[in-house]
Amino acid sequence: MTLLYSGFRNLSSLTASTCLAALIIAGCQRTSTRDASLDPTAAAPTPPPSLAAPAREALVPPSPNDNKPAEFPGLHQVVAYTPGFYSGAAPEGEAAFASLAELGVRTMISVDGAKPDVALAQRHGLRYIHLPIGYNGFDEQRRRQLARATSDALAAGGVYLHCHHGKHRSAGAVGTTAVSLGLASNDAMLARMKVSQCAEGYKGLWARTREADVLSPAQLAAVDANFPSVSPPGSFIESMVSIDAALEHLGHIQKAGWKTPADHPDLVPAAEAGIAADILRLLADKASARKQDEFAALMRANADAAQALEDALVAGSAAPALDAQLAIVARSCKDCHVKYRD
């Protein structure tokens, strides 16, 4: 009996020791797990496959055979005119520059008046060239500059040439440049301008592409290849004079029933509104850079009003609607004059 009791006592002690050891081990494991969850350097647990974010598909560059503009993150109205040579709208934010880099673009050429974001482009390994043009076309010197800049840039990779909307000025510039470099025929580039939705009213842009010829190697070599990343803008007074001239031209166009006046055959209705919108956007950007927030907001609102008039003209809106929008533009300019000039 004594032996049985002693054995039972020993067994109980062994069982207690075993349970105590198990509790200590379990406690250590819980402490280790808790400490790991509090450690900011600890790797995050891998989510189950069903919860993992799906991988984004790689961007596919547009083809010169596409029959409509392509859209990418931050990029709109992207149209390939020849392999690696694209027309499109101004890039929007970080995503746009990342998209361009992924598409194989290495050089961006802006024909818009606004100041390019050179720093953001450089962060994505992209070079910026700034060669602004107007809505009525561009002269022979600018044609050769665009051709030389594009020729050199294509040797390094893709080229993305943009204006503001990616429909008119960029289309005319890319079409003309491709013909000037012998990359495509006039007819083929005129067809691509239609894909970009370039309005027929921008006669100077269409004429540039239609009448372009191939530049010789000697002609290209004679062009200075030191192109600016940002072209110096005109003075504030020059900008105001240009806006006043555009509004005066729009007055003549309005009197002619919103058509090109017989005594001013050089005036293109939508182009005049576009000129005003472009200059006002540039003034807004300059004011923002100088921390003149109130003036910048006013310029941007005026630019939006002028842009709405250009869009209405391109869309062929009825005269009453055009009259009303021109009145809004004129009133916004008058309000600005009262506040800042008069």
Briefly characterize the structure.
The protein has twelve helices and six strands. Strand 4 (105-110), helix 3 and strand 5 form a beta-alpha-beta unit. The radius of gyration is 32 Å and the shape is globular.
Describe the protein's architecture and organization.
- This protein has about 350 residues and is α/β, with parallel strands linked by helices.
- The chain folds into two domains: about 150 residues, Protein tyrosine phosphatase superfamily (Protein-Tyrosine Phosphatase, Chain A); about 100 residues, Four Helix Bundle (Hemerythrin (Met), subunit A) (Up-down Bundle).
- It contains twelve helices and six strands.
- A six-stranded mixed beta sheet has the order 1-2-3-6-4-5, with helices on both faces.
- The chain is globular.
Furnish the topology, listing elements before pairings.
Elements: H1 2-38, E1 70-72, E2 75-82, E3 85-88, H2 93-102, E4 105-110, H3 118-123, E5 127-130, H4 140-154, E6 158-162, H5 169-180, H6 186-195, H7 203-211, H8 217-221, H9 236-255, H10 269-289, H11 293-314, H12 319-340
Parallel strand pairs: 3-6, 4-5, 4-6
Antiparallel strand pairs: 1-2, 2-3
